Fold each of these.
Amino acid sequence: MTINFATGFSDISNQEKAVHRLTGFIQSGNIPHALLFSGMEGIGKKKTALVFAKALNCQTIARRQATARQPVEPCGICRPCKKIAAGHHPDVIVVEPEQSRIKISAIRDLGHTLAVKPYEALQRVVVIDQAQAMNPQAGNSLLKLLEEPPAGTILILIAVNTYSLLPTVVSRCQQVSFKPIPDHALAEYLIQKGISPEKAKILGKLANGSFSRAEDLAGTEWLQRREWVIRIFERLGDDRQGDRRVALSMAFSEMLAKDRDGIVDVLELLTSWFRDMAVVKGGSENVINMDLIPRIRQAAQRCSTMAVLSNIDRLETARKKIEANANIRLTMDVMLMNLFLGFRG
Ligand SMILES: [Zn+2]
């Protein structure tokens, strides 16, 4: 995802509550030493952390503070604001995973940096992005920093959830939660990026509340892929295909097994397809794949509600197995066989 260094809080979409809390900290002058931003991937947590770092260091805001309770929108034009926007501020430090891990050495290095005074900042800000990528050793090392917070420094942990962090770390942070982005806001965002309104509406629903996911979907040939997968499933659900369906499901499994990166997407897509079938069976039209309603109806007629629900379970089981590094081909074979039986159920 391209990181857009927003100018200020007003550029952060759909996170009014989080923004309100953060600006409240600045207005009251009562800023916690450690914050934990939690919420799903791709909804603006890191962007907000950097805007907050700007607001804490903005010279314009610092001048205004003398007159109390002024707006705390960073000006974007003073030296600290510009340096933070460019990623060049020596006292705004971002720690990120390397090869999907944050190791103890990274946290120790951070400790050494924080042991000396900030270079120029009013408030030094450390952002630990994807904090769930810390192993327990790194977490314990961070705990020491949280127990004796370095002067003039604010630590911001960013994580998709809190249960994968050490409880002792979580308890030392003030939590600020970020919420999923509504479908319509994702669609508007995609339209601004030049996606046609019709396509943006569908992708907005498929993106599951995340800006970065919406961008990913817009960037790939997602709709073509969906068409490919759903056509296969329409054939699998069609009795007239007879025994050819077994061969088809095995060929599909083989193709999926070759594309490890794409497999979770396909499972998610299939889950949305069966979920939509369940919704239609329940008499509602509140589907995700809303451009496919007639086809969803047709597929739903061929399947019992029980079968649809157990297929959703089977997809979920397969997804968990893949995430736990199970053999992909075997997992897909078993899943497809079960789904296929489900059509008859
Ligand atoms: Zn400024």
Note: The beta strands are 34-38, 92-95, 124-128, 153-159, 174-177.
Amino acid sequence: MNWLDLFSDFDGSAGGRPLYRRIVDHLAALIQGGTLPGGTRLPTNRELAALLQLDRSTIARAYEELISMGLIYSHVGRGSFVCDAPQPDRTDAWRDRYSNYGGELKQLMECLPDPSVSSYPGAVISFAAGIPSADSYPEEEFAAIIKTLADGNAGALFKFSPAGGEPTLRKLVLEHLAGRSLKASDGELMILSGSQQGIDLMSNMFLDAGDLVVTEDPTYFWAISNFRAHRARIVGIPLDEEGIRLDMLQAVLQKGRVKFIYLMPSGQNPTGLTMSMERRRAVLELARRYNTPIFEDDFSGDLDYEGGPLPPLRALPGAQSLVVYQGTFSKALAPGIRLGWLVAPAPVVERLNFAKRGSDLSTSSLTQTLLSEFLRRGSYGRHLERINALYAARRDTMLGALERSFGESGVKFLRPRGGLFLWMTLPEGMDARTFLSFSEQEGVSFSPGDICYVGKADPCTLRLSFIQNDTTAIEEGVERLFAAFRKYRRALGVQTIDKTEPEHVLI
Ligand SMILES: Cc1ncc(COP(=O)(O)O)c(C=O)c1O
């Protein structure tokens, strides 16, 4: 494609419409007129900016607009391409009114794998999602409780519950947390409609455009997306084998005002890493020294396979005024119940409750009552015992299968002590997205790691969920993964598998 020719009649100095808009119009005309067919790779921001002697941000803005028009799409690390079937120019009233997030969202959605699309003829084994498997749900007991509730006084189920949650559930959640050495008073607690709501409420209450949020890097995709939607600037700090790197965290805290540090100390998403006790204390100490609050997301804190969960940051001495702590019933119990909790200093809870009312008025009374009864019977504790044993066996099966297949391949993987995820790094020169294409051909899928990075993504990384399948499916899935890996290696022209020793600590 001769881009110089294609832009020969483009006059950047002409007045009138904004410059980026004129680039959009120019490229849109080329795409819609068929001069740039589907799949055409566009010049990078830098290349086009140099060609037109313009600022890179102008080109970036134009590309964002073309993305939101459905004319081009962007692949992290690969570039921007013309969509296969260009949409006719849409003229509906919403088209020009998306926030910046609208453009970014479309871009991100292009990167998210669609688990429903597969060319594999049989059943695909998915290691992609962080959700429990169907055989783990306490279906019978829930059915029995629902029947009891329906037979009894169902009137309460139809009413709004208080914004902070049903009183009985609140009491039982506080008891559960006390069992995890986290003591909180009633005024410090709120019930959430799922912990994703906690992330949203924290953003609503604390983030203004341009504010700085520090996260681990990589981190939870939907937290990045939410913080960005609130126009926050995110600084990602890499991890080592004990958790977030202290030296780099300190360097950022020293530089300027950070609104909060978002952390997942247990079973971190996506790496599965659990922060050591020593690192927990050190992070808290650092946060205290720079008077910077921590937002602790303990989404899988109830899942630990090696001697019981470590205490959350919020349970450590001196953390009460500094840490906002949240958890969820989605991972250890069931995601569809949409219930979680948040513990924070009382004045913060008061404000977050206000934001919650602006978000959903109140959490479902039906599910709260249902869960209260499950907790009241002591069933959640028994469920956790069962589920921790089940998931420990699944983790060990996956680790064993990976060792056997990939042990000498140069692939590295972390051994998680809890949570849901196992983090894998392919040898240099390979990338997880191409590996995913090969894997889908073999009937197995996973989550590529690149979408979870705040800074420069490591394209070699990927996330495997080990809780989602039974041990037979895990063994079979890992075999398929290895078959895909061999095909990928062959396609790269590598005939033999490297005889390098496996390593287990690397991010
Ligand atoms: C780290 C983390 N936080 C929060 C959530 C939100 O979970 P839920 O809204 O189902 O409680 C998830 C879900 O995957 C997660 O991985």
Note: The chain is about 40% helix and 15% strand.
Amino acid sequence: MYQIGGILKTVREQKGVQLIDVQTQTGIDLSQLSRIENGKRLPTPEQLKELSSLYGIDSTTMQIQRQSDKIITTLENLEYGLESLAVAREKILHGNDYVSMFCDTHFTKPIALSSRRYIGSKAKLLDWIFDTIDANTDRINTFCDIFAGTGVVANVALSRYRHVIMNDLLYSNNIIYKAFFSPGEWDKEKVAAYIERYNALDPNKLRENYFSKNFGGKFFEASEAKRIGYIRQDIENHKKELTEKEYNVLLATLIYNIDKIANTLGHFEAYIRKPIEHKPLCLKIIDAKEFQNVEIFREDSNKLARRIHCDVVYIDPPYNSRQYSRFYHVYETLVKWNKPKLSGVAMKPPQENMSEYCSSRAGQAMRDLVNSIDARYIVVSYNNTYKSKSSSSENKIQFDELIGILNEVGETRIFEHGHRAFNAGKTEFTDHKEFLFVTRKHE
Ligand SMILES: C[S@@+](CC[C@H](N)C(=O)[O-])C[C@H]1O[C@@H](n2cnc3c(N)ncnc32)[C@H](O)[C@@H]1O
């Protein structure tokens, strides 16, 4: 039964036209017309054009009606008819990108913690760091990663030690740690359903929002920025229906996926000033786990140091004047979602979480930290960028100064590793080296 027949009949009767007159004016046979109106036969596109013109109705609207009738009759199983139609819609929307989008969501591994672009990430140095720690420490039960950044160091520690403390000033990092590590109830299928709904969004049907108005056409392609803002707001709107872990997994999933389409060199101090290539956002869930042996903080390192005890504290602070809260301000804004007024070319929020370690007080802060923390071993990561041409990349604590600070509290051994530096484009690091200081604190 084709529904277009009923529509044509209603219009004809409203116009007060007899079927015989329709035959005369269109040349369509009377019995065919009657079968069409009874829904037993589909008019051909040409016949429909004639009829639309005769009745003075929009031809495209009627062709769409005809096509939808045709689609419905091809559905083999009405039980999943609606879902099939929704998928067909996505296929039309995404064209050739659809196959890879589908495979990415359904058949590939969830996104790994270490896959994020983050300045100073130690993802490539983990074996060396832990081999050095193993060879130079003993009886480690509690490990503290007090400037945890991406969390990749703490992640390895979680599989080795009885208790792991991780901390970072940034809101976005804190959400990411909770999403990847914290224990808590969550339903993976429920989160996957949210993600599928977000992947099916048509950005053309979305309104401009806080995120797209501020970051569209800069850090993200305009229509994808609309999608990101919509998704962020939707997560907030559903907060009451989500457990804390589900909420954190959705937010961290959003951050990890937009990192892959951001128009940047890996941080948000600046965006690339070229037309932005349109890469559709296709969310893939993060590899969230639950650990019982983790404690997560978002505090200033020096304040936290006064309250905790650990066997090893791993210290990997910022090395130069470039603040992480400014590098990753877009994620901070996205996570906090209090929609502040943003300013400057990079659309930054008002300053928050500015680190002492990026200032001329870095040496004092480090001295205070190593003195106040109750730890048997202090392990410090350090890289020498101080010969850099750019002053913002100069180390705030010089190599010898750091040795002096550590020697005040214990015996220090220094280990060196060859490593290529982060390079934002202009700065050249010629003799960049990565060091690990291991200090056994005096009793
Ligand atoms: C060099 S990164 C750490 C990188 C990390 N080890 C990794 O592998 O990803 C330094 C981190 O320290 C954080 N930070 C800076 N000052 C801080 C402070 N006073 N207290 C806590 N975290 C701080 C920054 O947000 C940044 O994530």
Note: The beta strands are 142-145, 163-167, 294-297, 309-315, 374-383, 410-418, 433-441.
Amino acid sequence: MSSLIRRDPRIERIARNRLHPLHQSLVGGSTEQRGPTGLLRKDPRAGYFMGPNGLKRKDRTGNNAPGAARLQRGASGATASEPLLPLHKVESPAHFIVCVLDMVGGRLTSHDKDVLGQAHLLAKSASSEAAVVAVVFGDHREEGFDKAGVDRLIHFNGDDTLSYQGYCPELKLAALQSVESALSPLYWLFPDSIHGGTDLGCRLSARIGERPANHAWQVDKDNTVCRGGSDRIDIRRNTPRLILLAEECAMPIDETRHEVLSLEIELITQAESRIQDLGAVDVDPSQIPLAEAEFILSAGNGVRDWDQFHEVATSLGATEGASRVAVDDGFMPRFRQVGATGTWVTARVYIAVGISGAIQHLQGIGQCEKVVAINTDPGCDMVKRADLTVIGRSQDILGELLQLYKARQTGSSTLSQTKEPDSVSNQEKQDKEARCVA
Ligand SMILES: Cc1cc2nc3c(=O)[nH]c(=O)nc-3n(C[C@H](O)[C@H](O)[C@H](O)COP(=O)(O)OP(=O)(O)OC[C@H]3O[C@@H](n4cnc5c(N)ncnc54)[C@H](O)[C@@H]3O)c2cc1C
């Protein structure tokens, strides 16, 4: 195996192109990240290393950036392995700080990670050793509990008779009551969120008769500062035992690994659920605020047929967005503008139709998971940013999309005529499938 340093022109190209989606993972180095609310969060630890005499030194070489090893890999092609973080152990905890996590989609959210970060701050200030306990309900797909700071994990997975899937606050509350009597936690922490944290936290507070701190964003063992008055005023109070935490209340854990030891809790009360969860309902995508939309079809100066654009958005079930030029020209309302002076969006899929990718627009879509560009110019910045690009005239591409959607719909209605009994569910399934394929 040769130790010669080999150059990978593709990786070097990505490292030079700051608009490429993999750019950050290669060069690292950025100490600033934009949080979900648009606030810049600075990581004071990034860019430093511990010198031989224990002093913190600034790293000016760039060799410790996450992607540096990949830029210089040898003939074996092996990438440098991820550095092993030190293991934080809590041998015999005297206290427990319990975090009830949202786990949206079965994974830790950034809000959950902030809550775990806050739990460790409180654990450090506790009089004796404290363990951070995460409570998770139902199935999950998370593999990073150790790096997020979970010392102990309580997983209520249910069984044939008891299911924690969907909306079942009474069952979850009964489980939390069992945790309360088994561990008598030093603190109960919940994300103050619409994903269940606020609801469950308020229910537990009423059940155990303790007043919670809501929307807390600065917490230490003595005082808690909460946002109030529509986020205009701060309310300072003594830190209670039950805290509903705002987003970005603390930095997530990133310097240690944790044990994630399983804790078994026996249910002391069997709650009967009087709420029936009928599942998620379809909403009108045009009513979803841009900042919360998961799927956005966005129009720029390259859109020629506006009726066609609106029809496609309705068919695909997408929320409409726009570039500033489309708004200034009067084709779209001001509240649809995406970008630095519009809305910062966090969609899972963002389709940019005829948008060049000016820096002000790209700033607004920095948090989007997948970007699709439809454009006539293969060299434009939006194409560089995109994960998938379709080069062509917007009117042609959108026309094709519509045809595909209609063909699927016709196919599904033919199917529904032949299969009478579950025609409704089939139709719905086909519609959804057509949207996904489109
Ligand atoms: C202070 C300031 C703040 C700003 N804030 C924002 C902001 O928040 N949001 C924002 O969006 N902009 C903002 N802008 C404006 C920004 O700089 C750009 O001018 C704007 O984003 C360009 O919009 P566009 O991409 O739709 O138009 P253009 O730049 O004109 O690009 C049109 C694109 O469409 C393509 N095209 C042309 N014809 C077709 C076709 N038939 N089919 C497919 N593609 C086609 C072209 O190749 C081109 O890439 C701001 C500017 C300033 C100075």
Note: The longest strand covers residues 130-137.
